[in-house]
Amino acid sequence: MTSNLSAKHFHDEAAAYAFVEARVWPTGPVCPHCGGTDRIGLMGGKSTRIGAYKCYQCRKPFTVKIGTIFEASHVPLHLWLQAMYLMCASKKGISSNQLHRTLGVTLKTAWFMSHRIREAMRDGSPVSFGSGGTPVEVDEAYIGRRKGVPMTRGGGHKNQVVSLIDRETGKARSVHTARMEVGEVVAVVRANVAKEARLMTDEAHLYRTVGKEFASHERVFHGIGEYARGDVTTNTVESFFSIFKRGMRGVYQHCSEKHLHRYLSEFDFRYSNRSALGQNDSDRTVTALLGVVGKRLTYETTNRGA
C-alpha cells in the first residue's frame, strides 16, 4: 500500500504543473491575458521556468498559476497541492501552525495559503436550495467573540451564523450575519431558499414571518423536548454545526469576525463534498482545485478581510 501523499504531483514540480493544467485546462492551455486557445506554445530553454507558455496572439508568456490563487506565490506548486489535500482531508480543519510545521513554510505563509485555499473552496453558485420542493433545514449558531462588543445575555457579543442544508442534495450554505435579527435572517432565507421548498426550523421566532412565503414551514419544538416528528427535524443542520464548532474551537481556537466568511466556506465545502456524497479526500482536493481560477487574493486584501 502507498499513501495518497506519495503521488508524484505532491513531490515533483513538473508533475504538479501537469496535474493542475489537466484540471484547470481540460481542453488545453488558455491564455489568461487575451483568452486565446490557438497558437500557444510551451516555452523551452534551460532558464525557462517550469510550465511557461507563450501566446502568439497577444505575445505574452503565462503559466497555469496566472489568474488563480497561486498567482505571484513563491511557494512551489507541489507544496500548494499538499496544503490543499491536507485541508480537504481534515474533517475539522488543519491549523496554520500545523501547515507551517508540516510543509516547512513560515507561519505567515501558511496562514496566507490557508486563506487562499478557503477562497478556492467558496461556492458562488446562485442555485436556490429546495428547488424541487424538497426539505431545507435552517438554523442559527453563535461562535467566538465579536471584537469591541461587551458581553450580553442572548449571545449578541458572539459572531452569528445562519446555516442551511438542502436535504435532497446534501449541500450546506452558511452566512455570517451582523445581527441575529428577523430582518437579517429573513434576507438570508429569501436569498437562498426556493419558494417551493419545505422550510424546516426550530421554534425560533426569526422564521415565523418568512416561513409563510414557502410551500410549507414545519417546526420542531425543542423547548418541549421534540427533536423529530416524522421527517420534520433540524437534526441535519445541527450535525453540521457540531462539526463546525468542534473545528473552530478545537483546531482554529480563534477567528476574527472579518475572516469568518472564509472559514464558513471551508466547512460548507467539506460538508457538501463529504464521503457520504461519494467524494473521497482525493476527489475533494480536485474539486477544490477546480475553484482556484478567478479568485486571486493578495496578502493585503486578505489581512483587511476583503
Describe what you observe in this structure.
By secondary structure, the protein is of the alpha+beta class. It has helices at residues 13-24, 77-89, 96-103, 107-121, 182-192, 235-252, 260-272, 281-289, 299-303, and strands at residues 40-42, 53-55, 60-62, 135-143, 159-166, 171-177, 198-201, 216-219, 228-229, 232-233. It is elongated, with a radius of gyration of 22 Å. The relative contact order is 0.14.
List the helices and strands and how they pair.
Layout: H1 13-24, E1 40-42, E2 53-55, E3 60-62, H2 77-89, H3 96-103, H4 107-121, E4 135-143, E5 159-166, E6 171-177, H5 182-192, E7 198-201, E8 216-219, E9 228-229, E10 232-233, H6 235-252, H7 260-272, H8 281-289, H9 299-303
Parallel strand pairs: 4-7, 7-8
Antiparallel strand pairs: 1-2, 2-3, 4-5, 5-6, 9-10
Helix pairs in contact: 2-8, 3-4, 4-7, 6-7
Strand content: 5-15%
User: How many strands, which pairing sense, and closed or not: the largest β-sheet?
Assistant: 5 strands, mixed
CATH architecture of the domain at 135-272: 2-Layer Sandwich
Number of helices: 9
Helix-strand string: HEEEHHHEEEHEEEEHHHH
Order of strands, widest sheet: 6-5-4-7-8
What's the CATH H-level homologous superfamily of the domain at 135-272?
A: Ribonuclease H-like superfamily/Ribonuclease H
CATH class of the domain at 135-272: Alpha Beta
According to DSSP, the number of beta strands is 10
Q: Can you tell me the overall shape?
A: elongated
The amount of helix comes to 25-40%
Can you give the mean pLDDT? Answer: 92
By secondary-structure content and strand pairing, the structural class works out as alpha+beta
Low-confidence runs of at least 5 consecutive residues: none
- State Rg: 22 Å
Provide the CATH topology of the domain at 135-272: Nucleotidyltransferase, domain 5
